[in-house]
Write a structure and sequence with these properties.
Elements lengths: L8 H12 L7 H6 L17 H14 L1
Length: 65
């Protein structure tokens, strides 16, 4: 944002692509005005818990809720 790239067409489209890749995708209005917009690929994360850690976290959630 400090560089002002969001003020250019390419920068604005990059922001729209990131927005389109989040949650439910682009809105109908965005799809209408930018039909060639491709959602940005966002990184995926994986969390691996041992059975002991999973059991401990479930018990903790039980007491919190």
């Amino acid at each position: 944002m400090h560089s002002g790239s969001h003020k250019t067409d390419a920068g604005f489209r990059e922001i729209l692509a990131i927005h389109a890749g989040i949650n439910r995708g682009p809105s109908a209005a965005v799809k209408t005005h930018f039909p060639d917009l491709k959602p940005a690929l966002l990184p995926s994360y994986s969390l691996t818990l041992s059975p002991e850690e999973l059991s401990m976290n479930c018990r903790l959630l039980y007491y919190i809720l």
